[in-house]
Specification:
Distance between the termini: 46 Å
Structural class: alpha+beta
Number of strands: 2
Number of helices: 4
Radius of gyration: 15 Å
Length: about 90
């Protein structure tokens, strides 16, 4: 393990570890109920930036419509799946 990883893992024990399909689904579920990046970082033992980065990778971009948008997306990870519904107000 290199020094940078060891230093990061002092404060975020799972820093630089791969995300598992189960962790991805749990992250999506926690995000869906409104947990913030700081709270998710504590739960997943990663930095808030790592949590935000993973969510950007997993979530489709917000649609830009003239009215509120409700969208649904089905995620599949290693035989696991989850449907995520998001309601984003657009301006």
């Amino acid at each position: 393990m290199n020094e940078q990883v060891a230093l990061a893992q002092e404060t975020n024990p799972r820093a630089y570890e791969s995300w598992t399909p189960e962790a991805d689904l749990a992250l999506l579920a926690a995000n869906e109920i409104g947990m913030g990046a700081d709270q998710l970082a504590r739960i997943f033992k990663r930095s808030p930036g790592a949590v935000r980065s993973r969510l950007r990778k997993l979530l489709p971009p917000a649609r830009v419509d003239s009215e509120d948008t409700l969208w649904e997306h089905q995620y599949h990870f290693g035989g696991l799946s989850r449907t995520v519904r998001d309601h984003r107000a657009t301006a």
